[in-house]
Amino acid sequence: MSGLLTATATLPVIEAHEGGWDELAVFLGPLAIVAVLVYVARRGKHADQDDHDD
Questions:
Q1: Which of 13, 24, 34, 43 has minimal Cβ neighbours within 10 Å of its Cβ?
Q2: How far apart are CA 29 and CA 16, in angstroms?
Q3: Is 14 helix (H, G, I), strand (E, B) or coil?
Q4: Would the pTM count as exceeding 0.85?
Q5: Measured distance CA(46)–CA(17) in Å, rounded
Q6: Over its length of 54 residues, how does the chain's per-residue pLDDT go in tens digits?
Q7: CA separation (Å) from 38 to 10, 26, 46, 47, 52?
């Protein structure tokens, strides 16, 4: 067990909080992807409806 503690004690310390930009990126990244997909889907749907006007 002491070998495990020694191995983990030598790992570098990683900052988990970088001032909020990383949390913002984790939230806005997927939100932006979904927004683009919805935009493309709606644009394609409107183009299909315009072609079928009788």
A1: 13
A2: 18
A3: coil
A4: no
A5: 43
A6: 555 555 556 767 766 666 777 788 889 999 999 999 999 999 988 766 655 555
A7: 47, 19, 12, 14, 22
